[in-house]
Design a protein that fits this description.
- This protein has 268 residues and is an alpha/beta fold.
- It has helices at residues 19-28, 58-65, 81-86, 88-109, 144-164, 191-201, 220-232, 249-259, and strands at residues 8-12, 32-36, 49-51, 70-73, 113-117, 169-174, 176-178, 204-206, 214-219, 239-241, 246-248, 265-267.
- Strand 1, helix 1 and strand 2 (32-36) form a beta-alpha-beta unit.
């Protein structure tokens, strides 16, 4: 029998990039799902209990965690490096509030397992990201504020284990995630959705830099599968979720241009 079958599972941010495939997978596992989100997809209406709640309010977090067996906290602020540089408080403050409120509410509700979604942004730039290396350095300058926001959530989990002996928290650090339901907003989109949108809206595709930087990209469904594995197997140490394969930005540009239904010129 599936670990998730008939479990009461709460997913925050469940209609986003990672959350949506996670909902689909949990439905396949016959879980009883409650989703906190601003959206209510028509195809999921009646199959999932949707709630709109401001998770910056601790009382709301307490209410939604009552009676839950498992909590996947995916809620966050989607922001590009440009957004984080120019409006860092708009990223940092809600991220911290979501993390602190939801983890404490889950602890008080005595849930069976809790999933905290961290980020690869907690690392200092390196060729290989080893989980144990996080606290020997600082996040990169470009990821300084969002990186520290996620580090604070990880420290909260560590503090709970020390003081309360609450070792029910799994932590994942996804690499650069892409897939359906991504954020294509021109101001806040990450590299892949940004390139796709630009290619469809313009005759010339403007790309920053020379395309040489290499990134690890992972599909959103693979991240969701990794999260389910972490919770099912009660893994308490932080784990990277990535493809393990480096892809140059130029390769992504070439794919986008090849798939675009019109001729487009690239400007480096």
């Amino acid at each position: 029998m599936s670990f998730y079958r008939d479990k009461n599972v709460l997913v925050t941010g469940g209609t986003g990039l990672i959350g949506r495939p996670l909902l689909d997978l949990l439905l396949d596992e016959k879980a009883k799902i409650t989703c906190v989100s601003l959206d209510k997809p028509e195809d999921l209406d009646g199959r999932i209990n949707f709630i709109k709640a401001d998770l910056r309010n601790f009382d709301n977090c307490l209410d939604i965690c009552k009676g839950q067996d498992l909590v996947f906290n995916l809620v966050g602020v989607k922001g590009s490096p440009k957004m984080c540089k120019e409006r860092p408080a708009s990223f940092y403050v809600p991220t911290i509030m979501f993390s602190i409120n939801m983890m404490e509410a889950a602890r008080q509700a005595k849930v069976e397992r809790y999933m905290f979604t961290s980020s690869i942004g907690v690392y200092h730039p390196a060729e290989i990201f080893n989980e144990d290396d996080v606290w020997s350095s600082f996040p990169s300058e470009n990821d300084r504020i969002p990186g520290w926001a996620k580090r604070v959530g990880e420290l909260q989990a560590e503090a709970y284990e020390i003081q309360y002996k609450w070792d029910k928290i799994s932590i994942v650090r996804p690499a650069n995630v892409y897939g359906p339901y991504d954020n294509f907003d021109p101001e806040n989109a990450m590299v892949i959705p940004s390139l796709i949108r630009k290619s469809y809206e313009n005759d010339k595709l403007e790309v920053w830099g020379d395309g040489s930087p290499i990134r690890d990209f992972i599909h959103s469904r693979d991240v969701a599968l990794g999260m389910l594995h972490m919770v099912d197997n009660k893994i308490n140490i932080p784990v990277n979720l990535g493809s393990g394969e480096g892809i140059a930005i130029k390769q992504i540009v070439d794919i986008v241009v090849d798939k675009c239904p019109k001729d487009i010129e690239v400007e480096w």
